[in-house]
Fold this protein.
Amino acid sequence: MTDDGPGIAPRDLPHVFERFYRGDRSRSRRGTGLGLAVSRQSVEAHGGRLWVEGAPGQGARFAFRLPAMKE
């Protein structure tokens, strides 16, 4: 998923998946800082990986990969 928002500050990128972490710009908005932490935990519980790429002013791209199902 890609957005065209303000992006994520480089100092925030390593922390966006931590529980209750909220970057400076997001502190004025509602939320608990749990959404991305829960998402990553869910993906990893299924053997996958979730990551983010982005730069200030260029939006953010969240992606995940799950292993193929074996029959």
The chain is about 15% helix and 15% strand. Residues 46 and 69 are 10 Å apart (CA to CA). The chain has one domain: 13-65. The helical segments are 35-45.
